[in-house]
Amino acid sequence: xxxxxxxxxxxxxxxxxxxxxxxxxxxxxxxxxxxxxxxxxxxxxxxxxxxxxxxxxxxxxxxxxxxxxxxxxxxxxxxxxxxxxxxxxxxxxxxxxxxxxxxxxxxxxxxxxxxxxxxxxxxxxxxxxxxxxxxxxxxxxxxxxxxxxxxxxxxxxxxxxxxxxxxxxxxxxxxxxxxxxxxxxxxxxxxxxxxxxxxxxxxxxxxxxxxxx
Length: 213
Prior knowledge:
Layout: H1 2-12, E1 32-33, E2 36-37, H2 43-59, H3 69-72, H4 82-89, H5 96-99, H6 120-125, H7 129-148, H8 153-164, H9 171-175, H10 181-192, H11 194-198, H12 204-211
Antiparallel strand pairs: 1-2
């Protein structure tokens, strides 16, 4: 009976944020890294927290200024596609500006607007109509993917509307009169900002809403 009960609990966690492992009643000693308990085979946990500490220091460095420490803590780093995000925020993605560094006579100009240098930042903020239209189409594809994955409907609509806003609205304005958990998402996301959100940095509050479904 206990085995069946345990399996039912595990099945109930599918698609949700797994709760942190606690200390057993008769467990005399436990080693914690961050808020997680180390057990045998916990190398990934230790690696994650060590990398997170290094990333926090690097991204908030005065010469980089990608994320301030308070904004860094709002990001759900377990959900971030780190390779793509790292290339984007470090400015080493395959833009014309980057290619010009190692390709002689390569044009740095944005191929869409033909005015600005195509940097990683410009890719998201270019105002040329064709590129803006493409961005909105890509956001719509993300929305369809979120539907297919069973994302909480209201949260999906809020995140997609925020993305379509193209820096024109804060998450607080997007959430509007929706209260409770969505107000927490708004406060958190507005610390992260639209630009970083579009690079893949999403709030820890989003996972909390999804896991409550």
